[in-house]
Design goal:
Layout lengths: L3 H25 L7 H5 L37 E4 L5 E4 L12
Antiparallel strand pairs: 1-2
Length: 102
Amino acid sequence: MKSRRQFLIQTIPFALGVSVVVKVNAQSNRVDENASSAIALGYKHDASKVDSKKFPSYTPGKNCANCALYQGKASDSWANCVALANKQVNAKGWCLAWAKKA
């Protein structure tokens, strides 16, 4: 029978490793601004950096968090987006597919 100390010594590193893997997987699902689908939709992680001359449909206040295609809550900082193949987008981001949330 193992002591509690031995159990903790063996379990804690495993638990920490699992948390790192989960975080890495979540970040790897984030859309890359340089991906072809993101470029085609003019996606930016930060809506304030959208070129309004190039994308006249953009107006301040439009962002992923208030878009109908954003799959998270408005309070989520990252969530999946239907327009970008369910990749995670930044709540502060914007793209051409933006549609007002009902």
